[in-house]
Amino acid sequence: MENPSSKRTTAGALEENILAILDSTEADDTHYANDDRTSFLDAVRAASLVPENGTPPTFKWFESIFAILRIGKSLELTMASFKLLNELDKCFPRVHLSVVDEMKSSGKVMLIVENEAWSPFVFSSESTSSERGAANNLGGSVDSSGFQHLIEDLADATAEPNFQASETKSLGNMLLFQYLVNVLEGDFQPRNCVYAETANWVLLRESLLNMLLVSRKINYKNLMKDCLAIMCKLYRTNAGFADDLVSSETSMAQPAENFDTAATIALLEIGKNTCIAMQKFLIMIMELDLSKKTAEMQGSTTRADGVRTPLLEIVLDELTYDKDILDSFLQVFNEPKWKLEIVVQYLWKYIGKPSVRTRRANGPTDDASFNGALKCFSNVTSIKTTIKKIRPELAQLLLAHGLQAHLSLPCKQHVEGTSASSEERSNSSLIEVSENIISAFRNLKTADKKMEILPLGKEALFMAATIISAQS
């Protein structure tokens, strides 16, 4: 049997040998220094990922790789460190689930948390002065204020009228944000999964996401508004750059001097993935808000958990008062469950709240679902009142995107609470929604005879008609 002390000595020697690659050039920004950093990343990969039972990355390895991600001026190095960190996290997760009794199909799931593992975040109020100093260091871990500064930098960069991909710093910040969101997700999802079974709020209270959001070092509402602005601006920028790229490839003329094709392609890919990461970040917060609401109803929360405006309310307010971002948001935000919820809540703000069923009410009542909102468009008189508050074109966008989200939901979420089979309930619901969509557009046209059906509205009508035709 191998001596444990000998094994630790070997591991320590391996760590020192790999770190030694960086020692002589740690502060340099030369071609040779970048070559050494590349060699360091390759050495960590060879030690931890290539072997079947690789050596777990040490604290110092993680710190060094993360420093390369944060301050690397070479896009190639930044992307290499980003990729390596994500691969290491998948192979050596900090938080994961374990089945207690694998012999049973309904075995109990246990949450395993590696408390001593390295993390890119430093949130603890008891953090040492060295940890706080590291958080303020460009290459160190990120605290809550550092995360807000990152979002503010991204918001400032994407707000520039001539935002270009040539800025390595902006692309590096996008990759850094993507990685931090991946870490938050890897920590939050297993905890939320176990919370759904155990209702143990402490699991979510101790999540990195919750500790980030409850920190007094951030302005929560401004943070969320910046996140929405970044996602929508990046979507519009990517769409514009994609058009420029197509034009440069199809045109016989030489591209403009300030048009960097390689940088544009990099921005298209990194920008698209940043939009995906931003959506993931927002969805996690809304899921956390939902779990916290349940915990509050069960009396599991305390004053220490604080009071925070649910993100859904902030999103609705931003979309209401800044209608310029509504179209971009509906285009880029494609998670069906929350997209449909946002569309429905937005519609109900202008339609009026659904009627409440009383004990004596025997007939059907409008519900707060998408189909319930559609039924309110069956009355031309009420539609005339609605389009005084929102433009008919805006109503078309909401209805069309609502239908897209509804059709993307799993079948079990289309209709609940009836005794019919799942397939019968799903088909019945889709036909009813499709009929109500066609009726809503017809009545919108009746209420505003000058209204033109938008291309997206025509797609929704075609989709609805196809569903009805297929089921008849």
UniProtKB/TrEMBL annotation:
Domain of life here? Eukaryota
According to the record, the signal peptide region is none
**A Gene Ontology molecular function term of the record:** transcription cis-regulatory region binding
Q: Which GO terms describe its cellular component?
A: nucleus; Smc5-Smc6 complex
The protein's matches in InterPro entries, at most eight in alphabetical order, are given as: SNI1 (IPR034561)
Q: Which biological process annotations from GO are given for this protein? A: DNA damage response; negative regulation of DNA-templated transcription; negative regulation of systemic acquired resistance
- PANTHER family linked: NEGATIVE REGULATOR OF SYSTEMIC ACQUIRED RESISTANCE SNI1 (PTHR37243)
Q: What is this protein called?
A: Negative regulator of systemic acquired resistance SNI1
What organism does the UniProt record list as the source?
Rosa chinensis (China rose)
